[in-house]
Amino acid sequence: MEFYGEIAMEGALHRLLRPYYRPLAAAIVLQALAGVCSLVPWIVLGHIAAAAQPAAELGGLWPIALSGLVWLLGQTLALYLTHRVDASLCHQLRLKLAAKLQRLPLNWFVHQGEDGVARYVEQDVRALHQLIAHAPTDLVNLLIIPLVAFGYLCTLNMPLALFGLLPLCVAVGLFRAMRARRFRDAFEQRDRTMEEMLASYGSLASHPVAVRQYPQAGVQAQAQAATELFVSAFSQWVQRIGRFSAGTQLLLGAPLLAAWVIAGALGLGHGLLPAAQLCVFLLMVKAIAAPLQAMGHGGDALRSARLAATRLNALLTMPDMVEGTQQPNLVAPAEIEVRDLSFHYADQPILQNISFRLPAGSVTAIVGPSGAGKSSLLLLLARFMDPDCGQIRVAGQSLSSLSDAGRFRLITPVLQQGCALARPLDQNIALYRPEASLATIHAAAKAACLHEEIMARPLGYQSIPGRDLQLSGGELQRLSIARALLSPAPILLLDEPTSALEPQTAVALLRSLRQRSGSTVIVSHRLADVIDADCILVLERGRLVASGSHGQLLAAGGLYRRLWDSQGDTYGH
Predict the structure, then answer these.
(1) How far is it, in rounded angstroms, from Cα 416 to Cα 493?
(2) pLDDT tens profile 58-92
(3) Which residues contact 211 (CB under 8 A, 6 or more apart)?
(4) Taking the CA of residue 381 as centre, how many other CA atoms within 13 Å lie in the half-sphere pointing to its CB?
(5) CA 293 to CA 146: how far, in whole Å?
């Protein structure tokens, strides 16, 4: 009950559980009634067997039928209520998570990895099933059945009842010893290595080409290493708690309990205990052991549910990105000004003291080695996350003061991984301008070097991605760029727009981007793609180390010159 109370009292989950307290309380009452009724048949049969003329007592079997009916209805209704609460709670929790995920900074998603969000929305929510659907009834059985059974046995023979309870008390002690703090690290190591093993095998399945090319290294080697770590952690866990687990199962097993009760009857009784009373003792002691065994088997599930609840509560209580309220000044020039910008994640500095100003209508490139902070700076300019300190001003207004809708009217971001919605291609392209004519949509597709490929499809612009065609990575990237070219927003932010394109297509696409009116900011690792930008910002280890035109930066030497020279052989400039 302490465990269940801790979970219920945690902020967000407490608020989620509060509407369901009545059905949960009703389920607890029904399960308590069912637990008591489950013992009635053995009590009645023991009374009949102990009677002087058992045959004459057979007419009193109706309490068995009645208690069996009440047990069946009570347990069925209790489980129905808890499972109904479980289904409703999980549905509401997923809605809460969906709303929460929309308010979190994008860097949270980036650092979660491929399956990070799925872990919260699917695995952790599913792990609560044991906590909500089964824990209330299991805990009631754990309390009610042993108390009622032990109380009845005491009325028959208290010394034997106390003696018969000894193995059960030892089993409870062993179970508590397995859950002691000193074994917690073994449980955590086992669970952590299991998650790492499953994640590595998921990566193994996602990269079959790399596995074939490098059979003894890379992804396959990581999966094998993760498996070995799990086997080692699991072996250590078994070695540390194995004797406790084996002892618990032995003490709660029917053979030992039966032998123990019979030995007690022979050793404590004054003469041989009546056979009917001995049978009642055997049945009742086994009834007490059953919920204890369930407690042992459900321990891991409840522990997983508790960890999942802790993670979900931590996510739901994470600070949101606060939406501004102001509307943008669309008449003002769409210049971008960054002042003393710094940003870190997980105690690691990503950007430090960045300041620059980009005039309206300019083309700006952000370059630098891997890990320099280029994409992070672009995400900050799009306000997918907020800086630790400093300010970003767009069109004379603070970026954080703008409403989401207002910010999207000013800025259109295009991230490296393109996406397509399950709607016709013409609607996909016109997402930012739904009223655009078909001729305008075609022009945007041509500018993105996508028109001919669309027209080659049987359904043309009416093709629906995922149903009528499968778009490649390069096609998805160009679809996102065509969508952005059609956007009325005066500022366009692009993260590696040519990373999935062949050189000729990349050159044509960049030409279309330069012809676009408004301000354009491009993150690129290929310097040859951005040599004609009005301004090039050079980042190194999160700092702005140089800025200027291509010619100015080459003449100044430094990092830009080294990057240019290192790319000369690769791109032939």
Answers:
(1) 11
(2) 556 778 888 889 999 998 999 999 999 988 888 88
(3) 204, 218, 219, 220
(4) 35
(5) 12
Cβ of 333: how many Cβ atoms within 10 Å?
12
Summarised one tens digit per residue, pLDDT across range 311-356 is 888 888 888 888 888 888 877 788 899 999 999 877 788 899 999 9
List the end-to-end C-alpha distance of the chain, in Å, as a whole number.
71
List all residues 6 or more positions away from 154 whose beta carbon is below 8 Å from its beta carbon.
Answer: 161
Which single residue is written with the structure tokens 């509401």?
92
Residue 124 DSSP code: I
Report which DSSP code applies to 522. Answer: E
Residues in the chain predicted with pLDDT less than 50, given as ranges, are: 1-10, 56, 570
CA dist 237 to 178, 298, 573, Å?
A: 10, 17, 59
Beta-ladder partners of 465: 469
Name the nearest CA neighbour of 418 among 501, 492, 502, 475.
475
Amino acid identity at 381: L
This prediction's pTM: 0.65
The three-class DSSP label of residue 525 is: coil
In this prediction, residue 498 carries a pLDDT of 77
CA distance 413 to 535: 19
Cα separation, 539 vs 36, in Å, equals 72
251: helix, strand or coil: helix
CA distance 217 to 214: 5
pLDDT at position 7? 43
pLDDT over 90 for what percent of the chain? Answer: 12
For residue 526, the model assigns a pLDDT of: 84
Residues 366, 522 contacting (CB under 8 angstroms): yes
Q: Can you tell me the distance from the alpha carbon of 397 to that of 411, in angstroms, rounded to the nearest whole number?
A: 13
Q: What residue ranges in 496-560 does DSSP mark as E strands?
A: 519-523, 535-540, 543-548
